[in-house]
Amino acid sequence: MKENNGHAARRALSRRVGIVLVSFAVLLAILLAVKSHVRHKKPFSLSTRPHQPSRWGTRGRGGSMAYLSEAEVLEDILLAKLHLVDIRVEDADALQKASKASVTADSNTSYDHESATPYAGITGFFCTLDWSVHKLDPASTPMFRDLTAKSASCDGPRKMDLGKVVQAARERDSDINPRRVSSVHVLNLAAVVFHESRCGSTLVANILAGMNPAAHRVYSESPPPLHALKTVCGEDYSHCAKTISARILRDVVYLMSRSNDLKETRVFFKVQSLGSRNIEVFQQAFPATPWLFVYRDPVEILMSQLANGPRNANCVRPQRLHTQPTSVHRVWQHRGSSATTNLKTLSPEEYCAVHLATITETAVEQLQYGSQLQGVPINYASLKPMLLK
């Protein structure tokens, strides 16, 4: 199993650095600029991860928004007072039917892909996020779940049909009416952060937020993008096509990028580590958007993952599933291992190594052979020296 620890992938990443040297230099300049901007502020810390209790137990009940009608909720969404915080497939049959219809429409040159919504059966959950909490001190709410825990109305988010909301929002944003004064605008998607986990990605997200708190909005591992990338259409896109997944991703990012704060200009997303397996779909959705891949010595990642015991390690949890992820099977067999091996018999260390390899190898492939050369690999070991210069 030593060949599954990612060392070969790291060598490939090193070769890739030369290709993206110019982009990396730009990132270095940004990181160094942070030093002067936040010198007198509370320093960021990877270890500052407060464990907040889940506030999603009343999901869908409405909480303080329960008295609002559906029309009023939609209007608050269009005014960017309510934010998209989660999505869920509630009608799989409708989703598959719409997906098939969209595939047929792809051959029609008159089909307007941006105005039409090629999916159905997906529900969005909306509440008001208190962005001031995150902007004041990113390290106090480093993860999206921490932000929702400190946002009162997220006790009971409202449910709305995602496709209908997206269509209404696009119609509102395209309606140029000089008589209507509105502060609602769509933020520029500046960059997306992918990572291996336990590798400094939270530090990177906090840096992006701290560079210019008033102008930057940073989503750190929020559910909608990950669900759009892998959950909605299935790991192997058996429920709907990759093109549908890419469209859903564009739509959720669009909704999450709408703001009524005129000081905000840019939005960043840090995607959960599992989302790194779907970088190809992200690039299909946003071919011109820069993205980072934060990585670290695999031994250090494994030690961090398993520090609190194998049963508590995120990388080992899929091993308990009845059906193992296809990506895990694929990496296991690619390394020359027997296809008949029961992955449940692997040791936690072995399984965690295979899990990590599925993430790293996908990122390396996209860095080297992706359709767009927008990716930049970032080594965890280089973060601190850059900040201390």
From TrEMBL:
It comes from the Eukaryota. InterPro entries: P-loop_NTPase. This is Uncharacterized protein.
